[in-house]
Predict the structure.
Amino acid sequence: MIIAAADGSALGNPGPAGWAWYVDDACWAAGGWPHGTNNQGELTAVLELLRATAHLDDELVIHCDSRYVIDAITKWMPGWKRKGWRKRDGSPVLNLEIMQALDAAMVGRNARFEWVRGHTGHDLNEAADDRARAAATAYQRKTEVPAGPGWSDDCVTDAGGRGASETATDAPEGDAANTATDAPEPAPATPAADAPKRAPTPVAARPDRTDDDAALFDFDDPEADWRTLQLELTTEEHTRLVERARAAGVTPEEFLRGLI
């Protein structure tokens, strides 16, 4: 079994953009473009992971914090194809070239997706996010993009499976998601290559979450321009939000948008 995370980033959204997939420190890849969207980064990360592992028969488990990406590949794509790659209202599917490439890359693959909540300490997701953001930052600063080692024999780990030692196996299922409305990312971060390595830390599911919460984020038309969401925060949570936004050089609202 191959367990990996895929993530994307866009500074300014749209703006300098990056993608990354991550298995462990010896097995990851990243790239990007001078101008792109967060969703394009998220989709491309999955596509590049599928391409990098196309020669393998192992089951591929892809951890992803974007409901848009997961639902596009596992739910909406058959209907889009029947309608000539158009949505329910007849408008063209966004990111069509990447979507069609993903459709082809999934043929015959033993792959499944697991949604994880982004920015909550999930080790694989955080590692992929760091590298995607580092790639986007490199395009913003016009510096060399940290592309990673890619897939090689070094990606094969112990009997626990490829990448299994780095994975938090009890990540929460549920509600939050990247919608198709591209949201701004926080200010650029230091490239992951310079960051200290994290020790794996399992992420416990929140006991106060129910499956009903998912309805807040599962939209019939994920590509509508705007959504209004209400969020309740404790005083402590609000204080942390303000502090993190200030550290990133953005407003609390902009910081929250970057987490979606």
About this structure: Strands lie at 2-10, 15-24, 27-36, 60-64, 111-115.
